[in-house]
Design brief:
Strand order of the largest sheet of chain B: 1-2
Shape of chain B: globular
Structural class of chain A: little secondary structure
Order of helices and strands of chain B: HHHHHHEHHE
Number of strands of chain B: 2
Keywords (chain B): Cytoplasmic vesicle, Endoplasmic reticulum, ER-Golgi transport, Membrane, Protein transport, Receptor, Transmembrane, Transmembrane helix, Transport
Strand content of chain A: under 5%
Helix content of chain A: under 10%
Radius of gyration of chain A: 8 Å
Organism (chain B): Gadus morhua
Protein name (chain B): ER lumen protein-retaining receptor
Subcellular location (chain B): Cytoplasmic vesicle, COPI-coated vesicle membrane; Endoplasmic reticulum membrane; Golgi apparatus membrane
Number of helices of chain A: 0
Radius of gyration of chain B: 17 Å
Pfam families (chain B): ER_lumen_recept
Oligomer: heterodimer
Largest sheet of chain B: 2 strands, antiparallel
Structural class of chain B: mainly alpha
């Protein structure tokens, strides 16, 4: 499972 | 995007603009910690490197540019344009005691051991404590201008609203980012003492001054 998070937050 | 996230971003933007306007209008950066502002510039720089690698939305990209631009403009005003008014004698927090351990922690605890991800993690950890030089400066001088307290209030409110945003996203989207949440909780807790003084003093029309 890829834990990397999409950085849509600021 | 939910209401907490949006108001959080706007609160963050308000804080940044309030600080810039305060310095610009009064032609003075007295009472402002240049060290905290350098840390925030470092936070935005290391966090928004993904501007070079990915596009999320026009909103996302423009806000990132605004935050970075304002952060460097603030640093420029403190250390160049209005340098004569900078109160360096009271801005004595040792930032290396924050930056070095946080750099180490970002290497050890991250989502992915890649340069961009480590720098993003570093920025999240650093942001949580970047206000400490400013709070240290206020505790040293024992007072803060009212406009500075408005800046701090909006800056603290922003991460508190992000906490609400993360609760919302956990329930409705299953979204969960432990690094951001833990750092966000730490960041918000650091403002609690200040929030108390803001509500009990500043909102009642008194200047924020600490007992000697």
């Amino acid at each position: 499972e890829d834990e990397a998070v999409a950085k849509d937050e600021l | 995007m939910n209401i907490f996230r949006l108001t959080g971003d706007l609160s963050h933007l308000a804080a940044i603009i309030i600080l810039l306007l305060k310095i610009w209008k009064t032609r003075s950066c007295a009472g402002i910690s240049g060290k905290s502002q350098i840390l925030f510039a470092l936070v935005f720089t290391t966090r928004y490197l993904d501007l070079l690698t990915s596009f999320i939305s026009l909103y996302n990209t423009s806000m990132k540019f605004i935050y970075i631009g304002c952060a460097y403009a603030t640093v420029y005003m403190i250390y160049a344009k209005f340098k004569a008014t900078y109160d360096g004698n009271h801005d004595t927090f040792r930032v290396e005691f924050l930056v070095v351990p946080i750099g180490g922690l970002a290497f050890l605890v991250n989502h992915d051991f890649s340069p961009l991800e480590i720098l993003w993690t570093f920025s999240i950890y650093l942001e949580s404590v970047a206000i400490l030089p400013q709070l240290f400066m206020i505790s040293k001088t024992g007072e803060a201008e009212t406009i500075t307290t408005h800046y701090l209030f909006f800056l603290g409110l922003y991460r508190a609203l992000y906490l609400m945003n993360w609760i919302w996203r956990f329930y409705f989207e299953g979204f969960f980012d432990m690094i951001a949440i833990v750092a966000g909780v730490v960041q918000t807790i650091l403002y609690c003492d200040f929030f108390y003084l803001y509500v009990t003093k500043v909102l009642k029309g008194k200047k924020l001054s600490l007992p000697a």
